[in-house]
Amino acid sequence: MKEKKKVGIIGAGVSGLLACKYVLSRGHDAIVFESQSTVGGVWTKTVRTTKLQTFKSFYQFSDFPWPSSVTDDFPNARQVLDYIQSYACHFSLIQHIKFNSKVRSMDYEGSSDDESQTWTVWSDECKWKIVVEDTVNLSVEAYRVDFVILCVGRFSGLPNIPEFPPNKGPDAFDGEVIHSMDYAAMDDEKAARIVRGKKVTVVGFLKSAVDIAMECSTANGIENPCTLIYRNPHWNLPDYFPWGVHLALLYLNRFAELCVHKPGEGLFLSFLATALSPVRWAVSKFIESDIKHRHQLKKFGMVPAHSFLQDINSCQLALMPDGFYDGVEKGSIILKKSSSFSFCKDGVLIAGEERPLETDLVILATGFKGDQKLKDIFASPKFQEHIVGSSDRVVPLYRQCVHPRIPQLAVIGFAESLSNLYTSELMCRWLVELLDGAFKLVSIREMGEDILRWDQFMKQYARGSYRRSCIGALHVWHNDQLCSDMGWNPRRKNGFLAELFEPYGPMDYASK
């Protein structure tokens, strides 16, 4: 008879809910700690115009389809949150969640840090102590669990604020400086009020930045144009149909993955990836040509120096809001490329420009410190060092899920993909099979070697953005490894051609 485990899950976003559901389905006890008062993670606080970035058919629970009332292929944030909350209620997960419970630290109760360095296999002789603060009554309580699943996400909680020279940071500015996280946390009325009638400057060029810039442009028009400062442009998509071809047919199937070198591939697959490199190049150029044509990127000086392939391999794709470049054309959005910026009393000092940019409000859409948030949760300095690894490598997680030298702990939802819900669900299913003893992890040495192979892949294709740990353009290969570990058949399609060319999605993994 298998041992019943008590599992602590940190975070009640999509990954946390999936972890809770699958842990409970195997008869284990689950307790979820959520710092907010509701489930939904990043979807609880979004920019008003935010929509789902992938087709809903790729962003759905395999056993809980979208309701028929949601007809849009890209539901808005409210619809996504309703869907996630409905999932939690349908599977009776709410009763297992402690809301307003912020985890202050986690401590491993087992071998010493020094002893852990001598392990050759993943240890199962330990427990974790989780110290949790109730943010309502400010009480603190410690919980002991057999296993921990971290589902803290990397796009919330700890904003990334750029560093500035002395006396040239936000304190030098007479106006207001906020992070996109603060803007997203405002209700619609307050968000509209804070930008209305003001000269707003937005820093960044990924999804939050362009959405916020578009909202400011709509609110203020050319009378008070929104200035968007960016370091490098990206291949932000007008839609998912370059020249009428669905992007999933070009990147989310096995044939597309045959065109790239994969971690752990054999000689034949390596030869095939090299032989198909012209196809890989041609597909990237095909998509780039559509984006350049439809967004008139040359006209606005916005053609990226890197390839589309690099953006998709670093998960830096975003759907451009409708009318964005129309706003640039008419002057309600002003684009300024700069390697750096700083503040002065009257506004923003942009590198290469003599006069400061006069502005009333600066919104920093500069991302989050996901690595630091992951690190801060551990009490042990050694585990803090282990979990994030070195700055010149990817975050060292085997199967993008477990660390070789941090026992009885998994991280779900940290590695990015083109549909994080879909990726997290299969990882949770892999994890509960591991908990049940259906398979054993390979040795610590072998896990480390596999992590290095993924590190090499991400550096080759994502270049400078490899730390994002993106598996977006290699999700079938990653899923194959999870399936093989669990004893499932990785081939999920009917027929050779379907297996090669049909896109893979969450419903392909609805059953074993």
Automatic annotation (TrEMBL):
<keyword id="KW-0274">FAD</keyword>
<keyword id="KW-0285">Flavoprotein</keyword>
<dbReference type="InterPro" id="IPR036188">
    <property type="entry name" value="FAD/NAD-bd_sf"/>
</dbReference>
<dbReference type="InterPro" id="IPR050346">
    <property type="entry name" value="FMO-like"/>
</dbReference>
<dbReference type="GO" id="GO:0050660">
    <property type="term" value="F:flavin adenine dinucleotide binding"/>
</dbReference>
<keyword id="KW-0503">Monooxygenase</keyword>
<comment type="similarity">
    <text>Belongs to the FMO family.</text>
</comment>
<dbReference type="GO" id="GO:0004499">
    <property type="term" value="F:N,N-dimethylaniline monooxygenase activity"/>
</dbReference>
<keyword id="KW-0560">Oxidoreductase</keyword>
<dbReference type="InterPro" id="IPR000960">
    <property type="entry name" value="Flavin_mOase"/>
</dbReference>
<protein>
    <recommendedName>
        <fullName>Flavin-containing monooxygenase</fullName>
        <ecNumber>1.-.-.-</ecNumber>
    </recommendedName>
</protein>
<keyword id="KW-0521">NADP</keyword>
<dbReference type="InterPro" id="IPR020946">
    <property type="entry name" value="Flavin_mOase-like"/>
</dbReference>
<dbReference type="Pfam" id="PF00743">
    <property type="entry name" value="FMO-like"/>
</dbReference>
<dbReference type="GO" id="GO:0050661">
    <property type="term" value="F:NADP binding"/>
</dbReference>
